[in-house]
Write a structure and sequence with these properties.
Length: about 350
């Protein structure tokens, strides 16, 4: 039986029905509702995995070795086929890979985005993969790169070379001499978190300061709204839109998941501080509609399962489900240890 291991990475799939974990002892894929373990790829096959992503609900995964006992170098990306139970493609690079994204383009093709310290390489996957484009980024140690794919647009968001600037690129035009690129002055300091809504019409960002979340229109670059997490510095782990765009949730290293009302912003709390001098920036802010707590010493990823329900996955293996009301009250509706799920099947 495989040991429980340590979680190194957590990624939701594109339709947010599954999540995949890169582990010190391999890869695991889970369905969310109900919480079940779908796939176990052991240490003997892939070693320790630092970065991982899955293609929708298909049998294809991309991963990068890392952790304490990697089988593969951090300068390689491998594509795993879980039907054939083997690696089917290998990419070798000169630099360590900071993150990988696997997605379908607007037609029927499959693409891979490999993120490095200062660039992103986009490939069309086939028996002989084709490099479509290399784009320069800011110094990107976090490997920030998010994708939103539809029939009309394939958007890639990443930190532009100038600090605090977000670049949004339409990858459907990557093979052309000129391509659509939007640059958004999102923050004064370096970006720390990026997230698209389902339709790709909005993108949310946070900086390394960790106090504000800003939401922008991806076509015009205009700021739609600004939310305040708090006044002290924090590291954001995740930002996620609800499927209907009614709400947005975010998690950080403060051990709190915040929920904001995006459509009806009158539901959000306002500061009671006077709108004067240095206090004006706080008194004008929109604070969260609701919040709940998770372990403070864990990396946490969050998302909506229904219009009024949020799940949080922590790298200690815990799974939380909370429901919330427009009044701001939250109730824990579920708890599990996802690392334990499915182990009876291995005995």
């Amino acid at each position: 039986m495989e040991g429980k291991g340590k979680v190194l990475d957590i990624r939701f799939n594109e339709d947010q029905t599954c999540f995949v974990c890169g582990m010190e002892n391999g890869i695991r894929v889970y369905t969310i509702d109900p919480l079940t373990r779908k796939t176990l790829i052991g240490f003997d096959e892939v070693g320790a995995v630092k970065h991982v992503d899955m293609l929708r609900r298909t049998n294809l995964l991309a991963f990068v070795g890392g952790g304490q006992a990697p089988k593969f170098a951090e300068k390689q990306v491998h594509i795993w086929d879980d039907v054939r139970k083997k690696i089917i493609l290998q990419f070798n690079f000169e630099l360590p890979v900071k993150s990988v994204r696997l997605y379908r383009d607007g037609t029927t093709g499959c693409r891979l985005a490999a993120t490095f310290q200062e660039q992103i390489c986009v490939y069309r996957l086939s028996k002989e993969p084709q490099l479509l484009k290399t784009v320069q980024t800011a110094s990107n140690r976090l490997g920030l790169c998010e994708i939103c794919s539809s029939s009309s647009r394939d958007l890639i968001a990443f930190p532009a070379p100038r600090p605090g600037v977000l670049a949004v690129l339409d990858s459907l035009t990557l093979g052309r001499a000129r391509h659509a690129r939007q640059e958004i002055w999102a923050h004064k300091s370096q970006l720390a978190c990026i997230s698209f809504n389902v339709k790709g019409t909005m993108v949310a960002t946070a900086s390394i300061k960790g106090t504000l979340i800003r939401v922008f229109d991806t076509t015009t670059g205009d700021k739609k709204v600004e939310f305040r997490r708090g006044s002290d510095t924090a590291r954001f782990h995740c930002i996620s839109f609800s499927p209907s765009d009614d709400y947005l949730c975010a998690s950080s290293d403060k051990g709190t998941v915040h929920i904001f009302a995006l459509r009806d912003q009158t539901l959000n709390r306002k500061s009671r501080l006077p709108n004067l001098g240095l206090l004006a920036q706080y008194s004008a802010s929109q604070w969260g509609l609701a919040q709940f707590s998770v372990p403070i010493d864990c990396m946490c990823k969050c998302m909506f399962t229904h219009s009024n329900a949020v799940i949080a996955l922590c790298d200690n293996g815990t799974f939380y489900r909370y429901v919330f009301k427009e009044s701001g009250t939250t109730t824990r509706d579920g708890f599990d240890v996802f690392l334990d799920v499915g182990f009876d099947d291995d005995l």
